[in-house]
Specification:
- With 108 residues, the chain is mainly alpha-helical.
- The chain has one domain.
- The protein is built from four helices and no strands.
- The longest helix is centred in the C-terminal third of the chain and has 34 residues.
- The protein is elongated and about 60 Å long.
- The relative contact order is 0.22.
């Protein structure tokens, strides 16, 4: 029987492994298939699309700052940190739910 706490730990480990493997594979795809410029242009296009939807000068200046090389690096690092935390938390919640639901069975 797996209890909810053990399920959460196993789920968090699975989320960590998934994040590590997917990050490595995505980095290899970007490196070997030369997708860096394509990724950069897609990010800039999305920033331009979002900046056309607002008229707030502070938001527009923030979008302009994100279009610089340093801003794009910040966006990439922030998205990696968010994906890391989300993968661990969501997998841990899934493991805890699985442990709670499947761990309640009494053995005869």
């Amino acid at each position: 029987m797996i209890k909810a706490a053990a399920g959460a730990g196993i789920g968090a480990l699975a989320g960590l492994l998934w994040f590590a493997l997917s990050s490595v594979f995505e980095a290899l795809i970007v490196i070997f298939f030369h997708k860096g410029p394509e990724l950069r242009s897609a990010l800039i296009a999305k920033l331009q699309e979002l900046s056309s939807q607002t008229s707030d000068p502070q938001v527009l200046s923030m979008f302009e700052r994100f279009k610089t090389p340093g801003g794009l690096e910040f966006l990439m690092l922030a998205s990696l940190v968010f994906a890391f935390l989300a993968s661990i938390v969501l997998a841990a919640v899934g493991g805890a739910l699985g442990g709670a639901v499947l761990g309640r069975r009494d053995r005869p």
